[in-house]
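USER:
Class, as today's exercise, take the chain set out below, and explain how the chain folds.
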Amino acid sequence: MNSKTLNKWSRIVLAILGISLVISIFVPMWSIYLQAPQYPEGLSMFLWSNKITGDYEIINGLNHYIGMKTIHEEDFWEFKILPYALGFFAVLCFITAFLNRKIALYMTTILFLIFGVAFMVDFYMWEYNYGHHLDPHAAIVVPGMSYQPPLIGFKQLLNFGAYSYPNIGGGIMIGVAFILAILAFIEFRKPKTV
């Protein structure tokens, strides 16, 4: 076997990763849940690659009282590029499997990891902006209080408990990043043949 080529299983996994990334375009990426005594059933918001669904209009109404910005799909420039970015990486996985070259796997892995980190930083910055830039003339002003939702996990925001975590699409992205890193490591460690 040529030391510069991928093994058969790596190529099969790459094809599966490509299919998974295509699926991630059509399922929710992230979930944010809010729970409070006045909403025992909770409020939910789902971020997809190109839209928002769930109770975000109700959340907008509540957030108005504490001076938070309203959430509108057209405010997310990410929705215009994320489906294409995921499609690009899906195609890149297929091309890497077809080219059958370690260097292509390494480049795909590095690019996807950079994309994943950039995606998370962008999401954090959106949450920061959303939770810190408040209207000083809002009906309810709590000095020193910010309302940034957690990136992942739970955070208490006044009487609301906020939960934030990956949904199916986000789980796929995390899984793809993890599996690509493992494949790259396995292929790098594969014994060289003459």
The chain is about 55% helix and 15% strand. The two ends are 8 Å apart (CA to CA). The beta strands are 30-36, 39-47, 52-54, 153-157, 160-166.
